[in-house]
Fold this sequence. Notes:
By secondary structure, the protein is an alpha+beta fold. The chain is built from 23 helices and 22 strands.
Amino acid sequence: MPFKPVPIWKEMPFLRLVIPFIAGIIVQWYLQPPIIVTAIFSACAMLTYILFQFSKRFIQFRLYWLNGAIINLLLLLFGASLTYYADTAHQPDYIGKYYRPENIIIATLQEPLSEKDKSCKALARVDFVGADTSLRRVKGAVLLYFKKDSSLLRLGYGAQIVFKKILQPIKNSGNPGAFDYVRYCSFQGIYHQVFLEPGEFAVVPQKNENLVKKFLLALREKTLNIFRKYVAGNKEKGFAEALLIGYKDDLDKGLVQAYTNTGVVHIIAISGMQLALIYGSLLIAFKPFSKFRVIRAMEPVIVISTLWLFSLMSGASASVLRAAVMLTIVVIGESFSKKKSIYNTLAASAFLLLCYDPFLLWDVGFQLSYFAVLSILIFMKPVYHLFYIQNKILDLIWQLTAVTLSAQVLTTPVSIFYFHQFPNYFLLTNLIAVPLSSLILFGEIFLFATSLIPVIAKIAGGIISKLIWLLNSFIEHMEAMPKSLWDNLQINTWQLMLLYACIIAFAIWFLQKKKNYSFIGLCALLAFVSLRSFSFWQASQQKKIIVFNVPKHQAIDFISGRNDVFKGDAILMEEGFLRNFHLKPSRVMHRVSETGPMPDLKRGYNLFLLGRKRVVVIDQGMPLLEAKTKIKADLIIISKNPLLKIEDLAKIFECRQWVFDASSANWKIENWKNEAARLGLSCHDVAEKGAFVMNAD
């Protein structure tokens, strides 16, 4: 019997609101129309809608489509307006409109200090800017970095500080393919940062605290202290903190990479799974008391309050908020004995969350969360019904397998788009990791509940430690297996859209038995393969020199076709954070891998010839040479603080472009830039302007 799919438009009427609303968010962010234009269009659309409602019946009948078109336009304009005003930079009292470098700043810390290798970091809200005698209240956020010092003990959530140091704009590294940190911060209303040393700020005696947030942070701190006391092992403690409350400062970086590479990072990235388990536990806990009317009436309030308390305490990530809103709608619907469509609930939760924060649309967790749930809802039953298994244990295993497989259908393309990899053993790791992590989560809740009874808490903590060690060991073993990861995958936006077009068309063909969609799916697949083949051909023709922006390190790539030769510090050649963060995105984007000697690249001592470009790398002092004719070069890269003057080098080399990389001291680079300006030379400061890229064709 063929599977009958859910009629999407009937089951998801809220989707009709979400689509034009999302379109408005996208239009506003990418096209940036002036708000006055949006307001005029909104007024005209509203007036047209009102006039249409009062028009004659036969006009309404003949132009029935106009009513829907106007409503969709109003939703689009609503999304655009909401996005405009959600951007802090558009607020009338935004700090950027009033701040001057000589101003005093009064700011309030919005979180406890987070300890880094050489500093401490915190997000702060700017309350006032101005001179000594006149302060103006403003809105805006700033990232504060403090040099480690004993005076920082006075700082915590709600602490107010006064300082007079120039705010620096948030900047990207500028490396090809790198994460857009500026956009990420702007979505949170953060446009500035500052580094403060002892003596450069003063702490105001009074604190500026929100009681609810203070309570949540205190509850989180209490939970952390319980785990630190009863859970043994640093890796185990970090995992326990991340699993229950989303605290990641103590997580081992290698462990996080292992979970990412095996496809189960969603376990330690607080998601809807944790909230669903808590919701299920609450329903089981209330079941014996369902006879009592008072408890039955209190159940929705307690369940919703607990879900939101956990969501806020865990940091209110996009996936958790999605689950919290969905479950809240479900609980309210059930309390009124109304069974709501899960599809409509999903669309409604997306609409409400985007009304709260339109920039969630670009949050990877938000996208993956909705794709995963929608994928499970659509494909889980068809996948599960492929096989009939009588044995209950085997049937349960097959159910878990069906859930995992169905979730991958819609999440895989977007995962590859963002993370450029695919875990080949995801099915096996999820089958073991999800049930085991669920058991650990229940154990952590039990530990928290019994923490006042040291004997029981100690036993519970010991069991949890062993279970976490077992899970971590399994994940690390799976990562170490050969071919565990399909890495360096690269698809662009058009290829992503074609993949989804292919998946949707084939899904309709299989589920609804509409043969025409098989042709559409094949066309989308052909277009995807064609675009991908063309991108590989383009990569095979490229010749580039890239000088990366890696603070205090030399990093240069010479690219010919899909081959790459690296010149730089040895630490960047090792697998680790520096390499993965600064170099890997560019190599994935350019589809290259490091090789031995390249036929296209000729090199002498710090002299490179790639294509038609002659490159000189100067990373040590040079003796003064006298030559009858200058040495011609297309690019000179100055690196590693050499003792030299640009004026002396200009007597030796005739060069069009000079580049100063991020391994040299800032004061030296400023001196070199001033010299170059006096001599009329074109120069590029990598630390200031981002990576330098030259085509060598």
